[in-house]
Amino acid sequence: MRLRKKPWIAEALTGFSDIVLPNPGETLQGKWLDLFGNRLPLQVELGTGKGRFITGMAEQQAQANFVGIEAQQDVLYYAAQKVQAKELTNVRLLVFDVNNILTIFAPGEIDRLYINFCDPWPKNRHAKRRLTHIGFLEKYRTVLKPGGQLWFKTDNRPLFEFSLEQFAAFGLKVEQVTYDLHRSGFDGNVMTEYETKFSLLGQPICRCEVTFTPTK
User: Fold this and answer.
1) Of 18, 34, 97, 119, which residue is the catalytic one?
2) φ, ψ of residue 60 in degrees (nearest 5)
3) Most exposed of 57, 67, 119, 124 (fewest Cβ within 10 Å)?
4) Closest CA to 176 of 131, 215, 185, 141
5) 21 Cβ partners below 8 Å, 6+ apart?
6) What is the mean pLDDT of residues 147-174?
7) Burial letters for 121-132: b for 16+ Cβ neighbours within 10 Å, e otherwise?
8) CA of 23: how far to CAs of 14, 67, 103, 107, 131, in Å?
């Protein structure tokens, strides 16, 4: 379901210029740690939504830098509000199409990627649009450091099964696989807005951690 456009959002976002970056193009490619002013690990969330997850992770892992990418400007505004309210200096946000991720990150620049509750694109003809499709995995391998990780969560069991198949076909190491995260005993989970909603409805959450082993 598409969100109704809010014409005031674009102007409102200018008030978060220290948090929300304009389209960086190639200007920050290979220079993200310079932006943060440190050499801490770089972690990127693909599909930040309203920012509950990325702000929670940034609080939990103060010794890491976080970049949140979101395609919908209207949603990112609320994420920026959360970052500002929590006075987090280790988070930056941008409105961007994940399809073009290779244009803003240099090879091996990212330590970890997060994908939470992405669009399942249930029709078979749309499989290539799923963020865990092998076509995206090829891009992730480029921007991740050797041994870098992807942490994936979804409430959609068919998408999860599809993703596990894609990870296996791409030769990735998959660990911490669970079909019911909140009963798994996993420690340190930070919930997204969707995760809270689905959990209250009794929907089990699927999760796994994927390691991009170095190519030979």
Assistant:
1) 119
2) -70, -35
3) 124
4) 185
5) 28, 92, 93, 94
6) 97
7) beeeeeeeebbb
8) 13, 13, 11, 19, 21
Residue 83 has pLDDT above 80, yes or no: yes
Reported as a single tens digit per residue, the pLDDT across 85-125 is 999 999 999 999 999 999 999 999 999 999 999 999 999 99
Residue 146's φ and ψ, nearest 5 degrees, are -55, 125
Interatomic CA distance for residues 183 and 28, integer angstroms: 40
Q: Tell me whether residue 74 is one of the annotated catalytic residues.
A: no
Give me the pLDDT at residue 23, please: 73
C-alpha–C-alpha distance, residues 112 and 212, integer Å: 10
206-211 and 173-178 strand pairing: antiparallel
The pLDDT of residue 2 = 47
Query: Tell me: the pLDDT tens digits for 39-64?
Result: 999 999 999 999 999 999 999 999 99
Residues in the chain: 216
Is the separation of the CB atoms in 90 and 64 below 8 Å? yes
Q: Which amino acid is at 204?
A: P
